[in-house]
Amino acid sequence: MINQVTLVGRLARDPELRYTPEGKAVSNVTLAVSRNYRNNEGQYDADFVYCTLWKKTAENTVQYCRKGSIIGITGRIQTRNYDDQEGKRVYVTEVVAESVRFVGPKQQNVKQEELSPVEM
């Protein structure tokens, strides 16, 4: 079985870092990925893909990327579910990143070697 996805898009908001009770770094980001065709108004639509980054990948992405940054993510699709406060079952589909590459132009205060691929 193969479960592999590659996405390149822009961060829809600034990434935020948090830690699990076990001390593992995690960041949930939303990646805006343009579709390959125009809609009836002649504009390109985008899909907003929920992605989860772990450990050093999460820490480096939070440190070096901001809303609008272009990044590439390779990872796998994962689904999960939970019951919300009203008792309704909520299903979530997300990309769990295995690696992140910073694609956009380097920022003023970041050295080029810091923009290399980030591995977990």
Q: How would you characterize the overall build of this protein?
A:
There is one protein chain. A five-stranded mixed β-barrel has the order 1-3-4-6-5. 8% of the residues lie in helices and 53% in strands. The two termini are 22 Å apart. The protein is mainly β and 120 residues long. The C terminus is likely disordered. The longest helix has 10 residues.
User: Low-confidence spans: pLDDT under 50, at least 5 residues?
Assistant: 109-120
Largest sheet properties? 5 strands, mixed, barrel
- Strand proportion, as a percent range, falls in over 45%
- DSSP E strands, number: 7
In short:
The protein has 120 residues and is mainly beta. 8% of the residues lie in helices and 53% in strands.
Sum up the structure in keywords.
120 residues; mainly beta; disordered C terminus
Task: Give the helices and strands, then pairings.
Layout: E1 5-11, E2 18-19, E3 25-38, E4 44-54, H1 55-64, E5 70-83, E6 89-102, E7 118-119
Parallel strand pairs: 4-6
Antiparallel strand pairs: 1-3, 1-5, 2-3, 3-4, 5-6, 6-7
